[in-house]
Write a structure and sequence with these properties.
The complex is a heterodimer of chains A (about 220) and B (about 110). By secondary structure, chain A is mostly helical. Chain A has six helices and no strands. The longest helix of chain B is centred in the first third of the chain and has 23 residues. The chains are: A mainly alpha (about 220), B mainly alpha (about 110). At the A-B interface, helix 1, helix 3, helix 5 and helix 6 of A face helix 1, helix 2 and helix 3 of B. Chain B: This is Cytochrome C oxidase subunit IV family protein.
């Protein structure tokens, strides 16, 4: 399969760093490095997933009660929001490959708006929990579920969703920077590595949520 | 570098699949299947993750090398879960008592 040829007059040519022989090798190294970083992110969350699985094995009943108490409507909406934002990011990479950075910038703006909506809903949820006396760790004072297992469930809930929300925030900063670059016509066909790597990060945050959602909202 | 780029229609179809699986997972959770509930939810999540990795993250159009870090990470996660769960479930005694509340509940008879 021959590759699609970029236009002769490139508006935003990719720069070759001095340690690489050609752009293809540079791009491949950048992608592979990003995948290694994303794998390490998976292992970061894996520690919390393993804690959840272990405590659930011990306090099965209390964990089910905790999951049932969480707001599944908000959780499910957030899942749909993140999946849709991932679609917009994938389409923005597609637009940049076709040398349409302005289009890509608009799609990224949509993804940013959805990411912000995700964080707002998370804030609403946290507020509800605080009003009920659900806090992490020793501050837990929710009288409906006073057991140690329930306290453990909600502590893990705050840890996992909190760490995830920090990742969403970082992803939004990255997407914002890429959006600005798109509108400045800094990216185009043959020069899409930044957009691709930023997109990969956003999709990984989505993948983590794909597992957090059933763990915290569905398995009751 | 790349084999063949996906078309924009592919992305939309994958997104529709993801949304369908999300809805299916939500409806299954309402059915209260007990243990099967957990297995079904995790299976659906795994299928959704594969869709995102292959299409949105373009692994399907890239060389196999790029998939290796994720494959290794998945194996390591599986190993950690197996070890930790087999440890916890084979212990003899775990304290399960209610934690004391910071203030006594109201003295109204219920």
């Amino acid at each position: 399969m021959p590759e699609s040829q970029p236009p002769a007059e490139q508006l935003a040519p990719a720069r070759l760093a001095m340690q690489f022989e050609d752009l293809e090798k540079q791009t491949h190294a950048a992608h592979f490095g990003m995948w290694i970083f994303l794998a390490s992110e998976v292992l970061l969350f894996a520690g919390l997933f393993a804690l959840y699985a272990s405590y659930r094995a011990v306090f099965g009943h209390e964990f089910s009660a905790g999951v049932a108490h969480n707001n599944a409507v908000i959780g499910t909406s957030n899942t749909a929001i993140l999946l849709t934002s991932s679609l917009l990011v994938a389409l923005s990479v597609y637009a940049v490959r076709l040398d349409r950075p302005t289009m890509a910038g608009r799609l990224l703006l949509g993804a940013i708006a959805l990411g912000l909506a995700f964080l707002v809903l998370k804030g609403v949820e946290y507020t509800q929990h605080f009003h009920e006396g659900i806090f992490p760790g020793s501050a837990y004072r929710f009288e409906e579920l006073p057991q140690a297992g329930a306290k453990m469930f909600f502590t893990l809930y705050f840890l996992t969703t909190g760490l995830h929300a920090i990742h969403v925030t970082a992803g939004l900063v990255v997407l914002g920077w890429l959006t600005w670059g798109c509108f400045r016509r800094r990216y185009g066909a043959g020069n899409d590595t930044h957009i691709e790597l930023g997109g990969l990060y956003w999709h990984l945050v989505d993948v983590i949520w794909i597992f957090l959602w059933p763990m915290l909202y569905l398995m009751h | 570098m790349t084999v063949k780029h996906l078309s924009s229609r592919t992305y939309v179809i994958v997104w529709l699949l993801l949304m369908g699986l999300t809805l299916a997972s939500y409806l299954l959770s309402l059915a209260h299947l007990g243990e099967a509930d957990v297995v079904a939810a995790l299976l659906i999540a795994t299928v959704k993750t594969l869709l995102v990795l292959l299409f949105f993250m373009h692994l399907i159009e890239q060389r196999f090398t790029n998939a290796l870090p994720m494959i290794v990470a998945a194996l390591l996660v599986g190993l950690m879960l197996t070890m930790m769960l087999s440890d916890v479930t084979s212990r003899q005694a775990i304290l399960q008592r209610p934690i004391p509340l910071p203030r006594p509940p109201a003295a109204t008879p219920r």
